[in-house]
Amino acid sequence: MAAAEQLDDLYEGIRSGDLEVRLASSPDDIDALQALRYRVFYSEMGAVPDHQMRQLERDFDQFDPVCDHLMVTDSSRVPSSEAVVGTYRLSRRANAEKSGGFYTAGEYDISAIIQQRGEVLELGRSCVAADYRNGHTMALLWRGIAAYVFNYDVAWMFGCASLNGVDIKKLALPLSYLHHYHMAPLKIRPRALTERYNSMDQVPQSKIERRSARSLLPPLVKGYLRVGCFVGDGAVLDFQFQTTDVCIIVKTDGVAEKYRQHYEHGRHSA
After folding, report:
1. For position 186, which CATH number holds?
2. Cβ atoms within 10 A of the Cβ of 81, count?
3. Minimal CA–CA distance to 67: which of 15, 104, 21?
4. Is the pLDDT of residue 177 over 80?
5. Phi, psi dihedral angles at 187 (to 5 degrees)
6. Mean of the pLDDT values across residues 12-29?
7. What residue numbers bound the domain in which 91 lies?
8. Which of 58, 68, 91, 71 shows the shortest CA–CA distance to 158?
9. How many domains does the chain have?
10. Rounded to the nearest 5 degrees, what angle is found at the Cα of 127, between the Cα atoms of 258 and 135?
11. DSSP H/E element including 210
């Protein structure tokens, strides 16, 4: 959480009405965002908690203590412990060194990304409260990511993005669309670990109607595509979260102007 104090000035003014974006800066902040993650992932979406998570009603793992946590809060919500309505977990090289690596490395060989020059940023554990799932809240989160990217001169962003369900056949069309139209160049392409690899090439490219296939993707993945993301090779079944994961990669200089517009607009919003 050290970065929270360093970025105070960058996050000042990134708000809209009662909503504000900032980094978690206290144990209470972490507890509140872990509670939100539990409500969304486990209570709402059917993920399978372990015994301790179920008792505490919190989503947590070994990466949380060393990562930075972006939050959107609603000052009108009481008690204050329920003010966190959106969150993203952020991990740079320095964070990963403290935790023994990146979360994504448990599903993908990300050596091609890690070997790139410049700073890298892993995005993860993204969730938004049900009543706040709109473009407005996501825009605030992206403005927060933009500030972070600017401050640390991040060259690459990556992470796991999820499609609901663990039946590859039911997800054949959107997975095949990603495989045929958004596969990462080989020099930066992550690949699902051999023991977890599931081919995304389920439907021939000639049989894919792009607009229909894209419409089947979850909003978060569509958002990544709008900022020019690539995907890695292979999908991974996550039975704890009951999702099928793909690895996304974004080179930030290709979308720098979009980030800058998000960031500057956020700082001047009333």
Report:
1. 3.40.630.30
2. 13
3. 104
4. yes
5. -65, -20
6. 89
7. 3-268
8. 91
9. 1
10. 45
11. helix 210-215
